[in-house]
Amino acid sequence: MSKVTMSDVALEAQVNKATVSRALKGDPRISSITREKVWEAAKRLGYRIDTVAQGLSSKKTSLVGVVMGDLKAPWAGAFLSGVERVLSRYRMEMIVKEADGVHASGEAVFQRLVDRKVEGIIWNANVPFLTALEVPLVTVGEGSQVFSMKVVHDVKAVSERVLSLAGKRSIRYFSGDSPLFKYLFDLERDGEGLLSIYDGVMPPLSSDVRDILLCSDPVLSGETGCTCLDWGVFDAGGVGARCIVNLVRGKGVRPKEVYLSPSMYVSGERISH
């Protein structure tokens, strides 16, 4: 069976070849009706875009680098899934690297991605570096001193929510290997009773669930009955990807910082606030 060409798609969609090329690239000059007609024709014929050739002709690779501090972290998969969900919508691909400051320095990982001609980088690693930016860089968290955009927790809002939950009780913070709310350590205090915060670690089985704030996936809230502060890493990945798309394409909202405010759950039900 012969390979389906762009000319075949043009004939099927009843437009010229240049229109097909622009529609498949997402050119804003092409109307949504025409773009949809071209995509439907391409799907019917089984046409596949040659991304290598497209990159050579446009000098764009549609590649985004994603740097993780620890790919073994329990939340790494959810974060990358959030990134992939958004990038795939814009027909962009990701190259994932790990930078832990020991086996791979920030500068080395950054340069390897630039050498691969990525159009932008999402940095989710607590590994600082001072390399001058050659491509747009979106950091998630506080891992880099240089960035084009930063995605961070709304620390004030989250802290106020935890304090409201604690009431007059003492607060103690317990951290696992991959904590995401390290700033909650600053809320430790003495009071009447005790609220224990477990960030990235499960509490002892003998603990009273009424006195626990579990920083984890909301599913565990339903399974354990604990109050849960959602990690929100899937959303963080999606927001980071949306930011890098806007930067690479020079469109959309591009503030210097984007704040995330994770939700709380009790027995699997979200608490309104």
Structure summarized in a few sentences:
This protein has helices at residues 6-13, 17-25, 32-45, 51-58, 76-89, 106-115, 155-166, 218-224, 233-249; strands at 63-68, 93-98, 120-124, 137-140, 149-153, 170-175, 194-199, 212-216, 227-230, 257-260, 264-266, 269-270. The chain is α/β, with parallel strands linked by helices. A 6-stranded parallel β-sheet has the order 2-1-3-4-5-10, with helices on both faces. It has a 6-stranded mixed β-sheet with strand order 6-7-8-9-11-12, with helices on one face.
CATH first level of the largest domain: Alpha Beta
Percent helix: 25-40%
DSSP helix count? 9
Shape: elongated
Low-confidence stretches: none
Lateral strand order in the biggest sheet:
2-1-3-4-5-10
CATH superfamily of the largest domain, please? Response regulator
SS content category: alpha/beta
- The total strand number stands at 12
What is the CATH topology descriptor of the largest domain?
Rossmann fold
Bin the strand percentage: 15-25%
Elements, N to C (H/E): HHHHEHEHEEEHEEEHEHEEE
Q: How large is the radius of gyration?
A: 23 Å
Could you walk me through the main structural features you see in this protein, from its secondary elements to its overall organization?
It comes from Dethiosulfovibrio salsuginis. It is a single chain. This protein has 273 residues and is an alpha/beta fold. It folds into 3 domains: 6-49, lambda repressor-like DNA-binding domains (434 Repressor (Amino-terminal Domain)); 63-153 and 234-262, 3-Layer(aba) Sandwich (Rossmann fold), CATH 3.40.50.2300; 155-230 and 265-270, no CATH class. The protein is 36% helix and 21% strand. The protein contains 9 helices and 12 strands. It has helices at residues 6-13, 17-25, 32-45, 51-58, 76-89, 106-115, 155-166, 218-224, 233-249; strands at residues 63-68, 93-98, 120-124, 137-140, 149-153, 170-175, 194-199, 212-216, 227-230, 257-260, 264-266, 269-270. The strands form 2 sheets. It has a 6-stranded parallel sheet, with helices on both faces. It has a 6-stranded mixed sheet with strand order 6-7-8-9-11-12, covered by helices on one side. Helix 8 links the parallel strand 8 and strand 9 (227-230). The longest helix is centred in the C-terminal third of the chain and has 17 residues, at 233-249. The protein is elongated, with a radius of gyration of 23 Å. The mean pLDDT is 86.
